[in-house]
Task: structure prediction
Amino acid sequence: MNTTIEKGKLLIAHPFLLDPNFIQTVVLVIEYEDEGAFGLVMNRPLELTVDKLSDSLGISWGGSDPAPNVCLGGPVETQTVWVVHDGGRGIGVASEVVSHVAFSSSAPAIRSMLMEPAGRFRICLGYSGWGPGQLEKEMEGGYWLLADATPELVFDIDPAAMWLKAMQTTEE
Result:
């Protein structure tokens, strides 16, 4: 199995990974460096919808109804808001993760996406993080499988089906 972790990969929880924070999750790796890794869970929808989150932030939701659900990006700092989008419009500072998948965390970018949503996007609360060497040890332990992130996997697959779909694309 390929265990090369890098930005733009999907970490797919191995079926025997029973950690309640990561059971059957698909994590988009946003950053990967010697200092550690940062990612967002893409398939853990909350009961909270984007329009309700927008209201709680004092931002007028500009999208259609029904609004998509917010995802729990991970167990760390669950009060922080992140947006993964298709990069198809300028919403301020964005970091390309892979082609047609970008990441923004600035308040103006998030405000812009909530007021005038366009293209494909997922809003997440919280993130997943690993310290130096931690994710490598988890990979060696077989806790994660890897796949290439694609816009289709990140945006088009229903979160309830994403883990199974991603399992079918793992690098073995």
About this structure: The chain has a mean pLDDT of 91.
